[in-house]
Design goal:
Arc Repressor Mutant, subunit A; two-stranded antiparallel ribbon; mainly alpha
Length: about 110
């Protein structure tokens, strides 16, 4: 990875996830895109792998697939957390048209 070491990239991904406000969400791809300038690559799959291995200590449920699907295998807990945060949902998925967040937002 150009720009950052793999360990640094893990920390940057987790730092972005920690900043996602309650009731909002980002897709794996959006996180990868946001970090691409510093890291030199944009890989939603890599962000997903990082979240699977290291995401337990951050609000992992706020990271969803591009279609709003929550974390496979943890759907019930993720959806309960989203309901508790009043995240816009649609058909059992996060409504990214209304819930999407970008780190530069105030």
């Amino acid at each position: 990875m150009a720009g950052v070491e793999p360990e640094e990239y893990v920390e940057e991904v987790l730092a972005v996830v920690e900043r996602i406000p309650p009731g909002r969400a980002m897709s794996y791809g959006a996180i990868a895109d946001y970090l691409s300038e510093r890291s030199g690559r944009s890989s939603a799959r890599l962000v997903g792998s990082i979240m699977a291995k290291h995401g337990g200590g951050v609000p992992w449920h706020r990271v969803v697939a591009a279609n709003g699907r929550v974390v496979p295998g943890h759907e019930q807990e993720a959806l309960a957390r989203h309901v508790g945060e009043a995240t816009p949902l649609r058909n059992g998925r996060v409504d990214l048209a209304r819930a999407a967040w970008w780190p530069d937002e105030t």
